[in-house]
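tool_call: predict_structure(chain=1)
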Amino acid sequence: DKVLMELIEPYELRVAKLREFLEDVKPSLRYDIVRLIDPYGPTVTDPDLQCLVVSQETRQGGEAVNKQRLENGLPALALYEILLMQDPDHSENEEEKISSSSLRHRLLGTLLRPPRQDPALPSRPYVIGLTGGTGSGKTSIARLLGCLGAFVIDADKLGHAVYVPGGPAYKQVVATFGAEILHGDGTINRKVLGAKVFGNQERLKSLTDIVWPEIARMVKEQIREAEAQGKAVCVLDAAVLLE
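tool_result:
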């Protein structure tokens, strides 16, 4: 539940930095760096441990460790509390302590590495995938990028277009799910169709197997249209882009 966990450095890099720090502080120090796969790690099972270093905000965690150790028949650890360094330059919305969460906040909007050139992909237009759940701000970001000159593709609109009579998925969807999904005017009743697939993984997969390839094909057509218009950047706004 860390803030901006997507920007946390990879485990291997964090271990390398920790090892460099330990060797710099005291080269003769014996240490063991352990990957934590649960909230406690080896602290509640290792009988050789004697002390746990905590901060004021993690003291409760230390006390929870000792409770678990006692339940496991192990002696409680001495809790050595250290003060956290204060950040004199923190902003109003950042933590007062020196914090990796604050550092990740400051990284937002920073180009972490240059765009990777893939020889198999055309250099123009440069296609940016914009994804995230409902309410995450995709539409606002897409609108801003559009104002800056990007060609914006709204996958949700294409998703509606594939269902209309004469649309690329219309006949197959009706053939698969039956005429009862139709309104009186022949258009697909999305609510009835949704009720048919909701909670049924097999039916949902049948629907996405029909619809998603057609949306992907329409996206590619739109990218070609962006190229024809001479657009340098194309933004694909899609809630299920990765899927």
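agent: The chain has two domains: 34-107, 126-237. Proceeding to next step.
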